[in-house]
Amino acid sequence: MTESKDFVKPNHGSTPQPDHIMLSICGDAKTSMAVTWRTSIDVPSGYVEVYPENGGEKVRVEAITKEFKSDIDISNMHWAIIKNLKPGTRYRYTCGDDTHRSEEFSFETEPENLNKFKFLIITDHQNGTPHHDPQYEPIRKALHDAFSKHPDIRFILTVGDNTNDGQNELQWNGMFRGMKGFIESYPYMMCTGNHDNRGFKQYLPEPVGKFYLMHADFFDAQFEYSYPKNGPEEFETENYSFDYGNVHFAVFGINRQDLVGEWLYEDLQKSDKTWKIGAYHFPIYPIMPEGCNDDSYPWLRKGIEEGRLDVLLAGHEHGLARTYPIKDDQMYDRPSEGTIHYIAGNAGRNPFATNARKIWHPYFYPLEESLYCYIIAEVDDKVLTLTAYLEDGRIADVFVIDKNKDLMLPYSPAPIFKRPKMAFKGHIPDLAVRDLYVEEKDGKLYCAFGALMHSIGGEVIRTKDSVTISVYRQKATFTVGSDIAVCADGDRKLSGVPYMHEKGQIYVPVEDAAEIFGMAWQHAVRNRIVNFDYPSERRPMQTHPKE
Length: 547
Fold this sequence. Notes:
Elements: E1 19-24, E2 33-40, E3 47-52, E4 59-62, E5 64-69, E6 74-82, E7 90-96, E8 105-108, E9 116-122, H1 137-149, E10 153-158, H2 169-179, E11 188-189, H3 194-197, E12 198-202, E13 208-212, H4 217-222, E14 240-244, E15 247-251, H5 257-269, E16 275-279, H6 297-306, E17 311-314, E18 320-322, E19 326-327, E20 330-331, E21 340-344, E22 363-365, E23 373-380, E24 383-390, E25 395-402, E26 407-409, E27 421-424, H7 430-433, E28 439-441, E29 444-447, H8 449-455, E30 459-462, E31 466-471, E32 474-479, E33 484-487, E34 492-493, E35 499-500, E36 506-509, H9 510-516, E37 520-524, E38 529-533
Parallel strand pairs: 9-10, 10-11, 15-16, 16-17, 17-21, 27-38
Antiparallel strand pairs: 1-2, 2-6, 3-4, 3-7, 5-6, 7-8, 9-23, 12-13, 14-15, 18-21, 18-22, 19-20, 23-24, 24-25, 25-26, 28-29, 29-36, 30-31, 31-32, 32-33, 33-34, 35-36, 37-38
Helix pairs in contact: 5-6
């Protein structure tokens, strides 16, 4: 769109007066700070004036200015990178041009040798009500709550879905109004989520034409110089890393995980910080019953596990959960043995229903009430404490990682079963498959696959010596003593021969069953679990015939 005589400024559109003012870390947090703001295009340039609060010379920093064309507006974005600051010093600043300047705000740089500090974690604070003018009141209240109780918070880290529809600027206008009063004084470090990539071709009066982009274009345009330019080429703004105190933070978006995974590994390998914390919107170990990670984990595994993240924060599912330390799908007891995945709830009063605890999670809270949640992370040298607060004042979780003692509190030893159990998408349907253990025969794993599929809603027909399984649009018949599976798309030769085993169930080769039905499978040898996963969130529910 271009501004013309027919162009009408939208409600909350840009004006000559600076708005959408935001701090961020884009370099050394001890000596620099980035200021981002928006104006209308009749303000072609801008600058920041900054000075030490305890007295000192006022310095002018010229801004980079670029035009931002959205679906409803045309604006100028301004970014001023303040450098040569003193560590541990509070500064005051204004932004704008000679005619239109902001009010005065303040910030504090990171002190030297900082090993004890707090930061705020929020996720999924998107808000879609009212549709024509989203207010983002829940996140405003959540921030007020968090900063009132923890005035020593140093910065805000998000885990995605900062907006409900990031490709519609009306949503960003709402988010910035909700965050106003906080992000002008505390760095706002955003991770992108699927809603930040999402938009509607027509937003008003009703949304029409939903789409998702491979770049979060509006995010990239507004924050091009807000964050460090150290991510993978062409995806820098959505992927970046920064240091604060003794922690290295890696923030990565949901696009082109093949590029991001290698970048993440190399980025983490270069850091010698005590802690390595990641932020990625989609949970690798989901709590959605139908959740899957096939679009993420194959590419990100190397970075997460070999790059050695201590904690990977996630969002998306709006509940609270954390895993045991995990590496190569094995669950462990000590933090040095794997990465802990922490799903951080939601800060926007956006409850989901039907989330569930999986085998990976020693802690789970559904958060199905219409309450916001935020997490205070406190670093104290080699001890990290994550405390999850609910809107009504309850503490939902207190989790401690102590690197000195290589332990976690509360104590949560990972399960080790007597005999290998079957699971599907991280859930063990114990009532349906009790005593139906995975067996090894002639070097191959076999399982009562029909019983497992029946437990998740698949159609299973049994005869004296065969089992026919229909699930996820595939149908296969396995027969005792035959190495041929009769499938809807043609016969398949099996790597082993099905046999009748425990509880009158036919056991079939694990790898063949997974391949025929398009599933992945993992064998957690340490924990004695074989987990099947289907790369879709479709639900294999049986329904009544229409006639």
